Amino acid sequence: MTQQPREPVRVVVLGGGTAGWMTAAGIAALLPDLATVELVESDDIGIIGVGEATLPHIRGFVERLGIDEAAFMKATHATYKLGIDFRDFGRIGESYIHPFGTFGEKVADVGFHHYWLEMQRRGMAGPLGDYSFAVAAARANRFAPPETGEGLGSTYGYAYQFDATLFGPFMRQHGLKLGVTRHEGLVTSVERDGENGNVTALVLQDGRRIEGDLFVDCSGFRSLLLGGELTEEWEDWSHWLPCDRATAMPCAHVDGEPLRPYTTATAMPAGWRWQIPLQHRMGNGYVFSSAHLDEDRACEAIRNAAEGEPLADPRVLRFRPGRRRKSWSHNVIGVGLSSGFLEPLESTSIYLAQMAITYLIELFPDGRAIDPRDRAAFNRLVDMEYDRVRDFLILHYHATTRDDSEFWNYLRTMTIPDSLAEKMALWRDAGRVERYEDGLFYDASWIAVYVGQGLLPERHDPRAAIADPQRVKGALDSLRHAITAQVDAMPDHRAYLRREAGRLADAA
Fold this sequence. Notes:
Distance between the termini: 51 Å
Oligomer: single chain
CATH architecture of the domain at 9-79 and 162-236 and 325-378: 3-Layer(bba) Sandwich
Number of strands: 22
CATH class of the domain at 9-79 and 162-236 and 325-378: Alpha Beta
CATH superfamily of the domain at 9-79 and 162-236 and 325-378: FAD/NAD(P)-binding domain
CATH topology of the domain at 9-79 and 162-236 and 325-378: FAD/NAD(P)-binding domain
Number of helices: 15
Helix content: 25-40%
Largest sheet: 7 strands, mixed
Structural class: alpha+beta
């Protein structure tokens, strides 16, 4: 007896922009025989994007969708990103880079940072960033892709910085090539099954009905389906992350300034400001707490702080940090802002959308019936990701000695989540970082922030003190010199971008 082929699941994505077209293209590319994809969007509804900095995970997503990196970067005026330069967070006048890469390497199963802490105690080691390939390359404004294999040139990764207003349209074109059907129009009502409450169709302003089996809500902060129709509760995290506004203003590049392969985050009296270098301009913005600064003063602050000639007036974005209690309810899945929002301090917005898409593909319904266990697993995984990113962001604010403003005094002294308190206690007591297999930000990321903001542990692995300190110092010096030599041989960031553009032109 032959098994009848299953009908493809009819997936309807509500909302275009970054999250919507990433979702549509991802499902169309990776589940071509299991799903059909339709997307509903309206050109009357703008997108939030003001310029995006990303994390290295996006590279795998772009590659899996069959997108040529050079073509993608040309279309979105993208630059490469080796990490984030944090300034004035721990103390005013101090800075550190959170790199997309490692610090040194383990020796005899003892983490590199334990040896570094021991040598720092002895006054025989330089700053931690001296032993990171990504930090050295970022500081030198140089870039080349990581090497394959296990050499020193393979110890870092990279991400992208691109114009978000161009990324969505780029993904739209790619999605349409993959067979996504696009519907232009505004949703005026939602039809639901009277028995189980599932959404059955979206009704557009002109009367068209878009029917589906599975609906993905990418309607942004409006969360038309998940938050509006299904009334999934929002868990507010503003007491831990009080920044709820951003003012953004693009500027021209300053003549003669190098094109930095990293994002800059500079702490301000009521938040922090970003600089995101793109090929054609510099993105600037001030993320701030409206309880500590009004919008007009924030706009004035970014005008005064921005470098280069302004290309537009500042515009203000309003948001609430937090997430839905459930990101998958009934047959509706929230991806992107409709599911949750965490401020852009560590460039996690696109990652969180990509993460939800990845879990959806892994737990995609077997046929048109949804297994409640898959839905529960999806919610558990998404919640875990949001909670861990939340804790990492809070750390940047809480681990500070700043007492120069009401904003920083509040953050320094506030009660933090138990999950973060446990992580910080583990570090303070023994120089250890909580390990986990799933989720974002592993050891090197936490260590970069702990050390960069002056939070050193009371003790570290005693095995690091057994080795001959002169031999360890020699190894540290050799590592630093090797990094410097290899970085010096790398091309300038702007020069590498021009080389890739030339390769693309030659291939055309």
